[in-house]
Every structure is written in C-alpha cells, then in structure tokens.
Amino acid sequence: WFLLTCRPDLLPVDLKRQGRCEVHIPLFYPSTLEDRQSLFEVMARKTGANIAQDVLEEVARNAAERMSGAEIEGLLVRARRRSLLEGSDQVRPQDLKSELAEYLPPQYGEEIDLQIYAAIAECTDRRFLPEDMKELDRAEVSQRLADLKRRWD
Predict the structure, then answer these.
(1) CA-CA distance, 94 to 138, in Å (whole number)?
(2) What pLDDT digit, counting tens, does each position of 120-144 carry?
(3) Cα dist. 149→9, 95, 102, 110, 114 in Å?
(4) Helix, strand, coil percent values for the chain (each to nearest 5)
(5) Exposed end of the chain (fewer CB within 10 Å): N or C?
(6) Chain centre to alpha carbon of residue 139
(7) Averaged pLDDT of the chain
(8) Dist. CA 69–CA 40, nearest whole Å
(9) pTM for this structure?
(10) In this structure, is the dihedral angle defined by the CA atoms of residues 102, 103, 105 and 106, taken in order, positive or negative?
(11) How many angstroms separate the CA atoms of 43 and 71, rounded?
C-alpha cells in the first residue's frame, strides 16, 4: 500500500519504520529547465491542451523556477479555457503566454522549504534525491527541519 503526504514528519514513526514502509520516495519541484519542460509536456497531455513543443519550451523557460505540477496544470487549464472562450479548440500560444504573465505564485516560502527538508530527511534512498541534495549532511538537514518546524508548526 502507499502513503502519500506533504508532511512525512507528522506521520507516526510506527507507520514509517522498515517493515511497514520500506521505501520513502520524495517528490520535489522540478529542479532543472529540462524537468520543467517535461512537466509542462506531461500536464499539457493531461489537460488536453494541444500546444506546440516550441511554445511549451518557451513558457517553461519563462515560468518560475519553483512551480509545482498542480500550478503548471492550473496554468494550462486556464489557458485552455481562455482559448475555448475565444472559439479555438486548440490552446493558442498567446493565451498560454498571457496566463503565465498574469500568474502570481503563492507565497508559501518557508512552508515549502519545511516540506522539502522533511522529504529529504525521510528519504530512504539517496538515488531518489536530486544531485544538489545527495550530499547534504543529514545532521544539518535535521537541524534546518527542526528550525523550520519551530517557526511554522
């Protein structure tokens, strides 16, 4: 069975221990331009937003670096809605670019950092971590997580 949470640090230890949940797989925001482009492509297929590859690549380059899959999906849904309202079955490049220009990312800041550090701390296999996180000192990760929890919990 699977457990899915944004705050694995809040789950009881007996649920997370080896023998119950052997593999803890962290999910992070796309960390590279290539990752963002791939996520835009996947979400375009999911939402039925038929958009030219070069337009998706341009939008991914101009999108915020820290943009979740849900935010990308929402952006594409709004662009598709705008295109449909204008009488187009296809998402028009100008609609997607306009939606991106108007988009205001949520200001979760340190709360997202808390989730990221919790994911790093709970990860059970270094291969699941992005390159820039693989060599982080576990004690420093734990300390940063504890500091963030004191601020936000």
Answers:
(1) 46
(2) 999 999 999 998 899 999 999 999 9
(3) 10, 40, 32, 10, 7
(4) 60, 0, 40
(5) N
(6) 25
(7) 91
(8) 8
(9) 0.81
(10) positive
(11) 10
